[in-house]
């Protein structure tokens, strides 16, 4: 199987797409009202299949692995670590339509910290699947909570759902906000207020 990073730069004709997948996409084009055999659409089934394999690359990783390397030498630092405004995209599991958003991820370490990029990697590992925003938020928080055993975790996600913008209720630019708090942030309202304030939400 192609490496996922390679998939981003491979030409459609270099990707091995099973005939049944291509046929499914041809059927969808026909059902939408176009002719899958016209010139401009000939390679579209392969392109679409390649794109979906890439959008859903999160299924081929275990986000917990990103938190296996920890650092215990923190020079006495024992306060909050917060990554603000991490951009991400996902796809909703109901319509397979894009979700575009930002996440704030915070934790209060207990003696050990993790590389900063790993928090964004965890987010992407779960985002690059078919999702609902609530589950994505909880999965990111629980992954950090279970693997780092910190004193607290707070995750806030704000996202726009294309299925609400470009179809259905047709209300563009609505930000859906979800939050998951664990540990001290779920137990102590003052701590929750402080971390949400720091996030600016
Ligand atoms: N809770 C939740 N709902 C979502 C998310 N993404 C999309 N949805 C909703 O999923 C619902 C699916 O509702 P259905 O009635 O089964 O499908 P539908 O007829 O396409 O719904 P409409 O979008 O209202 O036209 C819609 O209300 C969407 O807004 C999400 O991340 N979380
Ligand atoms: Zn949707």
From TrEMBL:
UniProt key word Zinc: yes
InterPro entries recorded: GTP-CH-I_C/QueF, GTP-CH-I_N, GTP_CycHdrlase_I, GTP_CycHdrlase_I_CS, GTP_CycHdrlase_I_dom
Lineage top rank: taxon: Bacteria
The enzyme's E.C. designation: 3.5.4.16
Keywords for this protein: GTP-binding, Hydrolase, Metal-binding, Nucleotide-binding, One-carbon metabolism, Zinc
A Pfam family that the UniProt record links to this protein: GTP_cyclohydroI
Residues reported to bind Zn(2+): 92, 95, 163
Pathway: Cofactor biosynthesis; 7,8-dihydroneopterin triphosphate biosynthesis; 7,8-dihydroneopterin triphosphate from GTP: step 1/1
An example molecular function term from Gene Ontology annotations: GTP binding
One term under GO cellular component: cytoplasm
Reactions accelerated catalytically: GTP + H2O = 7,8-dihydroneopterin 3'-triphosphate + formate + H(+)
BP term (GO), one: tetrahydrobiopterin biosynthetic process
Stretches assigned to the GTP cyclohydrolase I domain: 21-198
Family membership noted in the UniProt record: Belongs to the GTP cyclohydrolase I family.
Assembly notes: Toroid-shaped homodecamer, composed of two pentamers of five dimers. Homopolymer.
PANTHER family: GTP CYCLOHYDROLASE 1, GTP CYCLOHYDROLASE I
Listed name of the protein: GTP cyclohydrolase 1
Protein's organism: Zymomonas mobilis subsp. mobilis (strain ATCC 31821 / ZM4 / CP4)
Gene: folE
């Amino acid at each position: 199987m192609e490496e996922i990073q390679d998939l981003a730069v491979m030409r459609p004709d270099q990707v091995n797409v099973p005939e049944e997948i291509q046929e499914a996409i041809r059927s969808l084009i026909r059902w939408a009202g176009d002719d899958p055999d016209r010139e401009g659409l000939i390679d579209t089934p392969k392109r679409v299949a390649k794109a979906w394999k890439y959008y859903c690359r999160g299924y081929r990783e275990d986000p917990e692995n990103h938190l296996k390397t920890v650092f215990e030498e923190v020079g006495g630092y024992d306060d909050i670590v917060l990554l603000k405004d991490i951009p991400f995209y996902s796809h909703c599991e109901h319509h397979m339509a894009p979700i575009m958003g930002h996440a704030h991820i915070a934790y209060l370490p207990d003696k050990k910290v993790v590389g900063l990029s790993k928090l964004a990697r965890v987010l992407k590992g779960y985002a690059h699947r078919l999702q609902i925003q609530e589950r994505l938020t909880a999965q990111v928080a629980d992954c950090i909570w279970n693997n780092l055993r910190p004193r607290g975790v707070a995750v806030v996600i704000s996202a726009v759902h294309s299925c609400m913008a470009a179809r259905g209720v047709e209300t563009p630019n609505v930000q859906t906000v979800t939050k998951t708090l664990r540990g001290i942030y779920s137990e102590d309202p003052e701590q929750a207020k402080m971390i949400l304030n720091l996030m600016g939400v």
